[in-house]
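[stage:ingest] chain + small molecule (FO1)
[stage:ingest] validated
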Amino acid sequence: MSGPGPVVALAGGVGGAKLAVGLAEALPPGALTVIVNTADDLSLHGLHISPDLDTVMYNLAGLSDPEQGWGIAGDTTGALELLGRYGGPTWFRLGDRDMATHIRRTQRLSEGGRLTEVTAELCASLNISSRVLPMTDAPVATRVQTPEGELEFQDYFVARGTRPRVTGVRFQGAEAAEAAPEALAAIREAETIVFCPSNPIVSLGPILAIREISDLLENATAPRLAVSPIIGGAALRGPAAEMLQGLGHEVSALGVARIMRKYLDGFVLDDQDADLLPSLKSLGVAGRAAPTVMTDLTTKKALAEKVLDFARSLR
Ligand code: FO1
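[stage:predict] done
[stage:export] tokens:
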């Protein structure tokens, strides 16, 4: 039996990174390309920080903090503490080792490297055999509309702890942004496309807001599958449920499948949502139930194998 060929996964932060690890584990080395949201990027202390790229990168490198899912395991915060004494902002908790990534990225970008190239260099140094690609080399910024005004994403997410009610979301710069050519080529060559269990509004939303990426994904002939980030009407982590509700969507796996309908051939939901399978079918999307909670390498790989098996059945 032939293998799954090149696989493209689209991912945001922690949930996406976990499935990316499972896919990397389940696939031959080099078969996986992860296209990552960069609309959470921010500039702090003069550094270019790409949280979702780093979350995917650290998880694939086996460096990530297992509790938080982001940042580096065992990292210290001495630099941030001193920056605080100098009057710098400390609300975004950057670890010392993590800081090295941002320093290096910022330096290479200032030398004229594209974010795609710089990310490839960082990944090569961390011995990552999968490809990690930003969705674009251009600046795109998620702006969250709330009763407290329009907020930068990390202001909403970290500084305000996702407390403000979300009334709207926009992706500044997305219309003008060209997709990274490497990302477009990877989607064209993919024989399987996987939407990781990432927030459909602010993690996958920005990737899909890049016109060329959206068009390719909408018209792709390779099987396209998503894994639900919503289980039993709630997100395992992050504000996906509150956002879906605030924006008038049904807070369920089915609600997510409806939003993503035009990109989907198959949808994997958690075993506990198996009662939604008939409604998925009415939506015209093939459904499969599986254990989707990823707690360790075994469960990440098992879910990835289920997804790849499902893709094979749709080919
Ligand atoms: N998330 C937090 O909740 N608090 C933080 O202080 C924080 C710092 C941080 C630093 C580097 C990094 O790569 C990620 C960090 N994150 C933090 C996570 C990040 O905000 C989210 O993972 C995403 O942007 C949402 O996908």
